[in-house]
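Protocol step 4 of 6: structure prediction from sequence.
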Amino acid sequence: MKHLQYLSLLLLFALTACEKEASIKAPYETALPTTHSFVKFVHAYGAATPSYSTPAAGPTLQIEMNMQKITPTALAIGATFPANEYTAINTVTTPSSTFGIKMSTGVPPATVRDSLLSTIITQLSAGKYQTYFFFDDAGRPAIQAAVDDIRNPAGGNHFRVRFANFIPNPPAATPAIDVFSVNNNAVVLSNIPYRRVTSYIELPRTAASDIFRIRWAGTTTVISSLTVTTNNMNSLTFVARGHFGVTGTRAPALSVTRDR
C-alpha cells in the first residue's frame, strides 16, 4: 500500500510539473497565430543600482513567467531574450501571464536568482507580437510593453525599422534623440522622447549594411552608433539605453533586435 501511495505521489508531481510548463511552446508543438501569443524581452536597465559588480554595472537579469524561469542564462544589459526571435505562449492554456524580472548574482551565464525587481500582468492574445522593455525610470525598475506590427514592407527591396528611447537622463537642452542613417545621409526619425517606442518606418535597402547613429535632437552630436546588416524584408527594433554622463557598460549605447 505504501508503495502504491508513493507511485501516486510521483504521478501527481509529474502531472503538476507538466501543467505548470504547458503554456510555453514545447519543441514539438506548432506555434500557430490562432492559438499562440509571441513575446520577447529587452534588457535596457542602465541604473547603477541594484548591482553586484564593482564598479556598478546594473543587474544581470532572469525572466520568469507565472513564477517559472524561462531564461536559460542571465541577460546582460543590451541583451534580448530570445535573441532575434519570440517565445511562443499558448493562449488557450494561459490567457494571461505575470512576467517577473529577477536580479541574478554574478555575470552571465549566472543562474542564481535573487530579488524580484519588477512584474507586469498582461493579457495574452492569439496572434499578437509584443516586446517588453525593462528599464529604469528615475532609478526605479520598470517594464514597458509595445505591440510589434509584424508584416512585410509594402515595397520590394526594403526593410523596416523602429526606435525605442530608454535614456532617462538626457541633457536638459536636448531631451530627445534623432536617428541618422549613413546610407540615406539623413535623419530618418526625429525628436524621440524618453520612453517613446516609434512605429516602424520603411527604408530602402541600398547596401548589405548600414550605420545608424543616435544624436541629441537638433544637433550633430553622436551619442552612439551601430552597424547592422540590412536584410531585405526584415523588421528591426533599435534601443537607445544607458545613462548620460557615465562610462563603461552603463554609458549611452545603441542595440538592435530583429523582429522579423
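Step 5 (inspection) to follow. The two ends are 56 Å apart (CA to CA).
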